[in-house]
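Structure ticket #2291
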Amino acid sequence: MLEINAPNLYLFSYHLKEGLGISLQSSQQNYHSVLEKIVGDISRLIPDAIAQDCQETFLDLQTQPTADLKFKGTLHNHAILGRYLRRSLHQTYALIFDGSVQERYNAHQVQSLLSTLKLLTPDPHSSDNLGQTWLISGVWEHGNSTQIEKLAEESYKTLISPEGWHHQATGDYVGVKLYEFWRTSGGNTGETIEGNSYLLLILYPDREMFQAGWGFYEQWQQVLLSRHQIIWADRQSQRLNQQLINQYQLIEAMADYSELSLYHLKTTRDALSGLLTGFTTLEMHLNLMEIQIDHYDQYCHQLEQDADGLGLTDLTFLKLFSASVQESYLPRLQGDIQAFRLNLERIQTLTQMIQGLVEIRQAQRDRTVKTAVAIVGVGVVTGCIVAVASSTHPAVPSVNPGTNSGVTGVLLLSVICGGVASLVTFLTVVLWQKLGK
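Resolution: structure written out below.
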């Protein structure tokens, strides 16, 4: 039976810090919420696992760019040693979880441990999340390759998706076997990585190799970050491109723009402006992917150089991702941008035309408001004149001195005259507009 000594679960999670329409203030708020939930979950599941001052340091993004939150305790009968390391890595927040037990576990116990440790990790669907890679490591003492593959299959279901993985790859690094697993949106190579999540399984032959493996985690973080940024940009660009297509088709389906109300004209104009902004964002995603694939290739090459002479190293599976980006991801986005560019002139023309209609309709509405105010003004002035004129006539003796009929009559007369004057003015304005056409 497969046995692993001191099994470890790592989670390398990355969050966008700034750029591509996301402000630093917004990302800090979202990231702070993620950190607060982590502290809350640990405190709830393992009471007194972390000191108050450690919590405050971990949550202080303003003055503590890097923080290491360590904790330990028993959860679901597992004696857990854990830590969270957060840091800034280029334009992202890197969040690394490390949970382990210092015991020998069989395959069944490993799944129980993974389920428990997952409770202490952040939600991968949080805002601004760029992706995550789960890494299971430990010292492999008993078992064979078939049992290792079975362990990986069950671990993927536990950590990422109950449906299991679509693809797997193997490699070697400084004499240690690597296994990687992932899913794609349709199950085919070259498609979007589902959930932007990977599972890596690294089993060391002895504790000496296990300890030595720590020396390369910094380089691996760089590789994983670039890969996740590429996948994130690909997924975001596909989603945005479909939204732009749907919006453009709705605008083109409108029969007669001149029949639209001023409100709908403004809404359509803003939608067209959104199309142009979206096109710019697509180009930014393409630029990000081109930059990151260069970084990814450089980091992979650096990994190979660092491992030179230290044992068998074969990172072909990492290079296959680079090939997939060059053959599928980049051409797909370049094609989307080119298709949009063919309609760019039409969108700009529509924007100018609708802006012209907005200005005409706005001017018409302003004239209507001014005319209405003038008509009401004529009525009010006429009523006032009649009221003043009526009040200057000699008073007529009243049959009933106790009533106020004189004032009431004057008021009624002024209202009637004002209304008639407003009506006459309105009819004159309408007739004048018709004769002028």
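Closing remark: Residues 139 and 204 are 5 Å apart (CA to CA).
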